[in-house]
Amino acid sequence: MKKAVVLTSGGLDSTTCLALAIEQGFEPISLSFNYGQRHAIELDAAARIAQHYGVQTHLVADVGLFRAIGQSALTDDIDVPQADSIEHIGSDIPVTYVPARNLVFLSMAVGVAETQSASAIFIGVNALDYSGYPDCRPEFIDAFQRAAVTATKWGVDGEALTIETPLIHMTKAEIIQEGLRLRAPYHLTHSCYAPTRTGLSCGRCDSCLLRLKGFTDAGATDPIGYEVL
Amino acid sequence: MKKAVVLTSGGLDSTTCLALAIEQGFEPISLSFNYGQRHAIELDAAARIAQHYGVQTHLVADVGLFRAIGQSALTDDIDVPQADSIEHIGSDIPVTYVPARNLVFLSMAVGVAETQSASAIFIGVNALDYSGYPDCRPEFIDAFQRAAVTATKWGVDGEALTIETPLIHMTKAEIIQEGLRLRAPYHLTHSCYAPTRTGLSCGRCDSCLLRLKGFTDAGATDPIGYEVL
């Protein structure tokens, strides 16, 4: 059975990606990243979703770097960052400001793919992120695939490694419709940037608003709980 | 003053690279990786070398992933890796078996470069590694540079980011001659895979033998201490 590494954040898009990889006949290896994001809760969601699908290998990679370069103090003369540096980071650094994030995440996925003999990597980048983030553009994905192949055994033995971006040209509503068709476990997903202590989504942050609008546009109901609706 | 991120391992090659970056007029940002390599001693060497050159920003990025995928147990059904997973890894995993290592390291360097507004990344890959490691080939470096530019602000604003590999076509002896010309602090470097408790190099491992042969071929004397010579 052919294998695929699927980048999973616990959100809607990567969950849909995972569902698509499985539909396409891949045995998925899910890979999440603990990189100092504000909401460890999304890592819990990713784990639950992997469990839902019976994913045999669910990896959580710890990436200390982003915590470090996210610190504005880095521009000062300081010796930096061991894993415990997370405590020095303000909770108000938006994860959206992480430079080269997809480049680093995909590179790590290549390492996993090579070790696990996977032939594809799925990443849920999509057109909604397109304008703001250079590393969500098809141009980047194409260039990265070339770099990934030349970096690894694939560049030597001539076998294929592909970077799959099935959502890249979809709207949020189209992604949700695709996920509903595949019965993706959206009730287990998490998108909110500012959840309550009990895990309810706030319903007011950008991520919640985008998600809710997606469900409305898709003519569907979001199955997760919101504090404010 | 233009800035460069220099990947520094504490060894001969990256130290020569750092010396070359400085000679070329760059303000260096040194970046080392704590990725479960057998010899944390090389991180100490990298820090001393950064200090020798008065490097203002010396970063040590913690990369948990390689510890995880280095485990052969990963192919089993296990939930993996938080930073503390290093204790589960045998000390006999050669660092040379790390897949996609340069891809991941360079990707992280791109994140640092973008944050720090550096215009170049120096990496000390060279022809001696060429045959065995796909990610030391010029073909990979070229592909990676394209991916790095498209992944980041450089792909949007049109400014240049270059991946500099000044050692790529040099022999070890030529690298050493270049470093001696630049008075690189080779006495602070570390190459040995199996140092004694007091920090002496073994003089017998592959890395020591390659280093010693390089000095001999360069007609120079290695300034570090060896247990056996």
3D architecture notes:
2 copies of one chain form a homodimer. By secondary structure, chain A is α/β, with parallel strands linked by helices. Chain A has one domain (3-190): Rossmann fold (3-Layer(aba) Sandwich). Helices cover 39% and strands 11% of the residues of chain A. Chain A contains 9 helices and 5 strands, in the order E-H-E-H-E-H-H-E-H-H-H-E-H-H. Chain A has a 5-stranded parallel beta sheet, with helices on both faces. In chain A, strand 1 (3-7), helix 1 and strand 2 form a beta-alpha-beta unit. Chain A is globular, with a radius of gyration of 18 Å. At the A-B interface, strand 3, helix 3, helix 4 and helix 6 of A face strand 3, helix 3, helix 4 and helix 6 of B.
The main pleated sheet of chain A reads as: 5 strands, parallel
User: What oligomeric state do these chains adopt?
Assistant: homodimer
Annotation, overall tally of beta strands of chain A = 5
CATH class division of chain A: Alpha Beta
Order of helices and strands of chain A: EHEHEHHEHHHEHH
H/I helix tally of chain A: 9
CA-atom Rg of chain A in angstroms: 18 Å
How does CATH name the architecture of chain A?
3-Layer(aba) Sandwich
The helicity of chain A comes to 25-40%
